[in-house]
Amino acid sequence: MTFKQRVLSVLTKPELLDLGKRFEPDVKSSMSLDELVKRLGGSKRAALDKLLLAYSKKQLDEACNAVGLPGGGTKAELTDRILGARPGSGNGATSGEDATDEDEEAAVEDGAAAYEHKDAKALARPDVGTQPEFKKKRDAKTYRYDSSLSPALEWDGNPAREQGEALIRRVLEAGTLE
Length: 178
Known about the structure:
Blueprint: H1 3-8, H2 13-23, H3 33-41, H4 48-52, H5 57-66, H6 75-85, H7 99-110, H8 159-173
Helix pairs in contact: 2-3, 5-6
């Protein structure tokens, strides 16, 4: 069970359904409690910080106990304590589980494992202060004027063509040439 799922496990089914309707449109009332926890726990739309906003102080206290954190304090303190203890927040999981193992478990359950490039760097973003090293922009190209082109881009604005087409149509529609 992931950290997020343990935090969600303190809620009742109606509370999970309410959260599910806010974040996951495919949550159904026929789902079991475990299915709801798993669905919301795996949702990227239902971020933990957004979910915790819907918790009461009592629920936050229970969630702290579920993940092995001390309870007590204000709602803001409890929320910060939970968010600070989640894997990947820099503080690490306090429940003794390694965050990478937990993430891999969740990925395997979902059917896809995440891959991280350990030595990859964002080469597309230059360091601050390197602006003068870039090439200067080239001047805009100018083209010579062609007076045979219409400025309004009317390619076939000759009325004689329309008159000729009308005469041809009359000839074709006529039964005889007389």
